[in-house]
Amino acid sequence: MGKDDFILKSEGVYKSYRMGATEVKVLKGVDLAVKKGEFLAIVGASGSGKSTLLHILGALDRPDKGVVKFEGRDLNRHSSSELNRFRNKMVGFVFQFYHLLDELSVLENVYLPAMASRSVVGWLVSRRWAKSRARQLLTQLGLHERANHKPYQLSGGERQRVAIGRALMNEPRLLLADEPTGNLDSATGNGIITIFEQLNKAGQTIVMVTHDERIAQKAGRIITLTDGKIA
Amino acid sequence: MYKIILAIRYLIKRRITYFAVLAVALCVFIVVVVMTVMTGLVSDFKQKNRDFVGDCIVGTESLVGFTYYKDFMTMMEETDFIEGVSPVIKSYALISRAGSQHCYGVEIMGLDPVRHSQATSFGQTLYYRKADAAKAFVPTYDPNLPGCVLGIDLALPRDSNSSYPYAVSPAEIGYSISCFPLTAKGALAKAGLGEINTQTFYFSDHSQSGLAREDSSLVYLPFEQAQLLCGMAGPLERANAVHIKFKPNLKLNAGCEKVASLWQMFKQQKAGEEQADLLDTVTVQSWKDYRRAFIAAMEKEQTMMTVMFAFVGITTVFIVFVVLYMIISHKSKDIGILKSVGVSNADIVELFSGFAFLIGFLGSGVGLSAGWLFLIRINRIEKWLFEHFDFQLWDRTIYAIGDIPNQVSPKVLVVIVISAIVACLAGALVPCWQAAKSKPIETLQVNQL
């Protein structure tokens, strides 16, 4: 395997949190490599550090120690604005609780990342493209008729599909999903995983955190996080 | 673009923001109304003072007065920047209405009505002789009698509606006016000889200057008679002041400086002449300095009001702070979501500052409109309150004002709107900073939901 085949690598990642007077060590030296086009599932018990690792991989948080490299570049060396651009262009997040903005419509939630990266003028120039891309994604996700609805008018599965649409809006190289089926019933959860499988088949790299072994089985590779380390 | 959209949606969808807008609107409304009325009262009061005294006053506080005023007036009239010059006698007197035993103290002002109307707005303050100020001291009922003009509140007590019950023509009333004439050295001129000068004058008109103190204590007399009463007539005539009006194109300070320099020259010319020492007590003052004691009190009141409204502004800042703090606390999840899609801390600050700006802008818009609507009806409202509840904002028997000033000054409005928006932005400062500082992983955690 060539060096460039890895889109994401973590080397000796440590992370701890302070809870009152106690320091809780969550990650204790995580080494991980994700290949381009791979569908990786990270499993582990509750509190094993899965979500923390995912946040660090997506630059939502910084490790206390260790290196996270995206396409060979150390994220620790990125400036704040570079990290913002990284989160906007390179990764897409799907959260367990969907995390949609209640004030925006379904369509607006989907094209939010495109709006976020552009100035008012830039947005006015590219809004046709963005809206068309968002509508296309909603069609692919079976939500075409829900474009003008508000998130609270949707079911859990529909909301998660909107969140997937938002994550894919800027065609990110990496999709990070944190318990994407954790708040859904089995059938709806399977539907979401099916979407992930289809995306992966189309070449999308996906890293998914789940505590559900059955869901994890759908991924191409599974790693288990135990006590802050990869088992 | 999302910042504009979200700021507008937060404003529309969150009911608590209506309270913030309402709070700003109320503050702006109060400030607009009070500042407009206050500014109007102050500028009206200043204008009335200027109308009353002219542009510049060359005079002395001494009741003895000063000599050679005629020579100085001639010198002034030869210049090209003077529009009117009027000599004035000022003193105190005792007045009693004919047939009445009651006697009370008043101030007297001896003046030539034609000259004084050129230097001040004296002619415009008259009621019966407004069109012909030259006849101010000529009673309509008997032109041969010596007339006097009384301050309106001396002549005409207000009725139950706080209005003056003007008669069609002046009533024939005689007033006995007594003065204590003084020599050039300040001694009683008639010591041992009765000491006072008394003359009867007949009511010819009343003067409404709009200045409460003057309208309730001044009696205007013909210049020569007042000079005689005060012992200022004789070979070396004296006056207490010369009121001057400049030509319209001359600025006040420049005019006063010119007069002051002419006065210095004049004083030097008269040095060594008889009673020239009286010229040393004379000062040259602009109307603002001359009436400083009265204007300063009003300006102080205005300053105090401004300070009070600065506190109102602080309350607005606090209200906006509380509202934004609450909204941002509820919107921590949104902040996390936005950061997860690459929004920077500066963008978060801009988003919530924009939201605060909208609160300020809308609040000031509502407050300004309501204030403006209230102001254009303020006199009608006051009249209605007076008719139905006998309530007057300013008791007209005490305050010499006609209508409540309601001319909205665009400059004041701009300052108020900018202050309201700045207050909102100041109130948003801390919550915005906290929002920008928050870590997305903390706000997106399940236990935060």
Descriptive overview:
The complex is a heterodimer of chains A (231) and B (449). Chain A has 231 residues and is of the alpha/beta class. Chain A has a single domain, classed as Rossmann fold (3-Layer(aba) Sandwich), CATH 3.40.50. Chain A has helices at 50-57, 80-90, 106-116, 120-140, 156-168, 186-201, 213-216, and strands at 6-19, 22-35, 39-43, 65-70, 73-74, 91-94, 174-178, 205-210, 221-226, 229-230. In chain A, strand 7, helix 6 (186-201) and strand 8 form a beta-alpha-beta unit. The longest helix of chain A has 21 residues, at 120-140. Chain A is globular, with a radius of gyration of 18 Å. The mean pLDDT of chain A is 88. Chain B has 449 residues and is α+β, with helices and mostly antiparallel strands. Chain B is built from 16 helices and eleven strands. In chain B, the strands form two sheets. Chain B has a six-stranded mixed beta barrel with strand order 3-4-8-5-7-6. Chain B has a two-stranded antiparallel sheet with strand order 2-9. The longest helix of chain B is centred in the N-terminal third of the chain and has 39 residues, at 15-53. The two termini of chain B are 27 Å apart. The interface between A and B is medium-sized, with 36 and 28 residues.
Secondary-structure element string of chain A? EEEHEEHEHHHEHEHEE
CATH superfamily of chain A: P-loop containing nucleotide triphosphate hydrolases
Strand neighbour order, sheet with most strands of chain A: 6-7-8-3-9-10
Question: What structural class should be given to the helix and strand makeup of chain B?
Answer: alpha+beta
* Number of helices in the DSSP assignment of chain A: 7
Helix content of chain A: 25-40%
Largest sheet of chain B: 6 strands, mixed, barrel
Could you list the spans of chain A in which at least 5 consecutive residues all have pLDDT below 50?
none
- In total, the number of domains of chain A comes to 1
Domain module tally of chain B: 2
Largest sheet of chain A: 6 strands, mixed
Mean pLDDT of chain A: 88
Biggest interface between chains:
A-B, 36 and 28 residues
Task: Write down the CATH class of chain A.
Answer: Alpha Beta
Flag low-confidence runs of chain B: none
Number of strands of chain A: 10
End-to-end C-alpha gap of chain B: 27 Å
Coarse morphology of chain B = elongated
Per DSSP, the total helix count of chain B is 16
Chain oligomer state: heterodimer
